[in-house]
Every structure is written in C-alpha cells, then in structure tokens.
Write a structure and sequence with these properties.
homodimer, alpha/beta, UDP-N-acetylmuramoyl-L-alanine:D-glutamate ligase, nine-stranded mixed β-sheet, 35% helix
Chain lengths: 302, 302
C-alpha cells in the first residue's frame, strides 16, 4: 500500500479569541501527512516550499515515514503564507492575508516512483493543480479523495467540476455542499453532488460531526465533544488524513470500512483543534485515539 | 401513569422562505400534547385560551386522549397570538408580533385530580407560571421536565433559576445553554447547568441533533435528515412531548431509557417540521415513527 498526498506546506499566522501566533508551520498536506501517518508509514508527499521553510519541519515529516522527494524547495523564494482570524464561535473565520509566493506558479511534479500509488489524497489546492497530479498517475489509484473549499468554487468552478469527474470521495463542509449543489437540504445536495463524479461524499460539519453519503446509504459520526477548542485550523485536513490513512492501511474500500475511516478522521481532527497549529497532530498517542473512538461509539448507542 | 402538560395553546402566523400562513393553531402545549399522545392516552392539560379559539382544535386534542378540564376558556378575551418569520437557513427567526392577550394574567389552576400526576411537562412559559404549577402539586411528580427559551433568560433569569431548582430535566437549545451557563463549550456549559437543579440536561441543536447529559454520562442523537423542512415551529415542543410521553409510557427513569426517549423525541420533531403548524404531528403514523427510529439507529452504527 502506498499513499500519495498532494497539498500545501505552508506558514500560517492564526488569531483566535484565545490565542495569536506568529508564523507557524501549517498547510493542508502537513496536517494530512501527520494525521495519515498514524496509520501508515508509507506516505509520499508532493508539494512546494521556499528556501525559508525550516528543515526541522521537513524532518518531522520524514520521521513519520513521509517521503519528501516530491517536495520541491524553491531557492530564493518564499513559502506560501496564510493568516486568518477566527470569530468568537470558532465556526467561521476571515482571511487576513494570503501570500501565494511559491504557490503562484506551482507545477506539481509527481516523482516516477509515486505514480503508481494506490491511494491519492488531493488536499485543498487550486483544482487545475489537482488535475495536473491526476494526469501524471501511471495507474489509476484505487481511491482518490479530493478536498476543496468555497474559494475554488467562487473562482474556479469549471476546473473544480472537471477535477471532480475523476474523484472517488469528495470532502467539503455543509456550506460548500450547498454552494456546489445549489440545494439547501443536505440530503438533496448530496444526491446532486453524487452525480458530478464522486461515488462518495463526506460533509464535514465541524463541531456538529460529519456525514458520509454513498451507495444509497448514509452514515453519521458526531464530533468528539471538547472542553477547549483552541485552533480549528487544519481540522478538515486532519480529518482527511485520518480517513484516507485508515483506508490505505486496511485496504478495504467499502461503505462499512469508510464508516470507521470517518470516525477515525473525526477523532484525529479532535486532537488538532485542541492545540495551536500542528502541535497536537504531530504527537498523537494511540491510546488516546482508541479512547476517543470508544467514546464516539458509546455516545451514540441506544 | 398520568402526564400533566402545562404550556401555551395559541394562534401562530408563520412566514418561512417557502410558506406564509394566516392564524393557525399553535402553542407549546398543543404540540407537546399531540406528540406525547403517540405514547399515552392519559394526558392532562393546563392552559388558557380566549373565546376565539376554535372548538375543533380542542376536540382534536380530546380525541387524542387529552383531558381539557384544566384548559381555561376566557369569555370576551382573545387567545395568545405569536407571529414570526424564519430566515433562509430556518435555524433562526424574528418575532414579528406577540399579543399576550389571555396570557397576560394567566393563573394556572391545576384541577385537583391532576395534582398527583406522575409526570409533569412544564412547556415553555413564564418561569413564575411554571413555578405556580409546581406549588400546586400534592405529590412531587416522579419526573419534572422543563422547557424554556432565551426570552425568559433575558428578562426573568432569577425566576427561571428558581424554577430550575425543582426540575429533573431541562431542555434548551445550544445558544440557550451557552447563555444560561455563560460558557461557550457545551461540555462545560452542561456541567455548570447540572449544578443549578436539573439532574439531566438536553441540548437541542435543531438539524444537528440533540445531546443528553446526566449521571456523568452523555448521549447523542442525530436529527433525522430531511429533504424538506417547511416550518420549524413546534419542533422543540414536539421533541419534549415525545421525550416525556415515552418515559410516561415506559415509566423507567434511567439514563438508558432516556436515550431512547431522546431518539423518539427527535423522530417526532422530524415530522413536525415537514409540514406547517400541527398538521403533521396531529396525524402521526406508528409505522413511520418506527421507520425513522430504525434509520437513526442505522445511520450511527459502525
């Protein structure tokens, strides 16, 4: 089994009602890799950074078994930087600053030894870049999961719809599901989205859990109830990493196994939001993961 | 077993993105009684209406086994009227008009034969009125469930806190739980509220489900996913009616049995929102209820 992860590796600066950071390590692929590495030590990364990106952060990925041959390091250039401010309810945020830097002209080059990866996670990125990765795969992966966001729907909808045609699982939040489908009811929205390409759809609802649709079935996982949410950044990426990591490990692409993958994704995301940046997802303990999985199972049983 | 329901019987006028009504039958106690009657034909109602309130609506309650000796009909006066407009997302609403009418000086008189009711549902009402009912009970009911809302927290918090001291189960929504506790985390909010009197707390989250807290345990029920939500009015009341109706029928006041009561409440509320006013909850079919219960069980199992 091999898992290819494509997405941003970046600097973030985050402001929440409880904390404010300078530039810290972030990026969708960073969260995805750390989260997926809980299940798999055979992860290939395709991304880009500038020469200002610290070796320490790259080494931290390597230590988790992430192969970084596909991580381009652009000399004389700067790493993608995003800065955002979360509102009081932590469910919405404003982007304060986006410096694309190396992302501006990012051409994802998939190293030859990655082009037969069985599992492909296309993290939140410009849809045309996601498509460029798909085109380089020598064999169609067994499972392609694509994450995206409202920004790409606002500005690159045709490209996104094109990328979706080759996707197996799409992960988006509830507002994005409504935007993509033009339907308010999530049930109707899901039906519509499942005609656009993806065979499975996961609607992430933050503190309200996540819903998996596909094969005319539905599965719902509540979120882990937390006393302290410090920083929601990367929650969706950690979810996606846990989801595809579990599937890559177990190799069983069925609705039943995806349910468990959704719960694992939910659990891994719950750790991410408890600390700033990747601090928590970088240091996951198996015992704690199993405890939260058991909590979710118990909280819904009647 | 006997169940006493106290709450408003009223006229509503409702505006949603999909519909607009003239005066239709509404009121918390109306929804609660219809919903609870799915489980029990031994319901006593204490409320008040004006002479303008149609006999037909009273007879519809009687047909469900609701005893209306405690329903005061005030000659020469008008029934409580509320009019509201739901926003596009159906999760929030503005009150357009409130005519208290007979509610202005409502003195709830509990008929002697009701004063030993074993189950008491205090529907959303002025807290001092809820307290007046409690004072008239000859024997403390086995279970007292109290529903309330932000309006009473804004204007009558001391009275509400007084009423809570004698409550077993409090049902409120997530915003109200935050307002009542002053805490943002629902987990911390719940802990705090459970020191105010109630032994159990149910936080209703609308389309995002409901959470039961108590005995240091937690239970979560997702809402039924619906293609069409027409009118959310009375959803919380239908939930409360289903919850206490099921407990009154089964008579087992344990956390485990309350879980099932929460799921039944969730299912009954799901019917209410699919049609305008009480149209749906007035005509509940057992088969459909059982089907939705099975759906909830299946959607969370992994």
């Amino acid at each position: 089994m091999s898992l290819l992860v494509v997405g941003t590796v970046a600097f973030d600066a985050i402001e929440t009602p409880f904390a404010k950071t300078d530039k810290i390590i972030g990026g969708a692929a960073t969260y995805i890799c750390h989260s997926a590495s809980f299940f798999s030590k055979n992860i290939n990364l395709v991304s880009v950074v500038g020469e200002d990106f610290p070796n320490k952060a790259i080494n931290s990925l390597k230590e988790k078994g992430v192969d970084v041959k596909g991580l381009q390091i652009k000399e004389g250039r700067k790493t993608f930087f995003w800065s955002g401010k979360y509102h009081n309810n932590m469910n919405s945020r404003d982007t304060l600053k986006t410096e694309l830097n190396v992302l501006e002209d990012f051409d994802p080059i998939v190293p030859k030894q990655y082009t037969k990866s069985e599992f492909l996670m296309l993290g939140n990125l410009m849809p045309s870049v996601q498509k460029r990765v798909l085109e380089q795969m020598q064999e169609r992966p067994k499972l392609i999961v694509l994450d995206t966001m409202n920004f790409w729907m606002d500005n690159f909808m045709p490209d996104l719809k094109e990328a979706l045609k080759n996707t197996d699982v799409l992960t988006i939040n509830d507002d994005e599901a409504r935007q993509l489908s033009g339907e308010y009811s999530l049930l109707i929205a899901a039906k519509k989205i499942l005609t656009m390409g993806p065979k499975y759809l996961i609607i992430k609802k933050g503190e309200h859990g996540a819903i998996l649709f596909g094969e005319d079935k539905m599965f719902y996982s509540p979120a882990v109830m937390l006393e302290n949410v410090i920083d929601p950044t990367g929650a969706g990426d950690s979810f996606a990493g846990g989801f595809i990591g579990y599937l890559a490990k177990t190799k069983e692409i069925t609705f039943d196994n995806m349910k468990k993958a959704v719960v694992y994704g939910t659990v891994l995301a719950s750790f991410t939001v408890e600390k700033l940046g990747i601090e928590s997802i970088e240091n996951i303990e198996e015992e704690k993961v199993n405890k939260r999985l058991a909590e979710i199972r118990s909280v819904v049983s009647f």
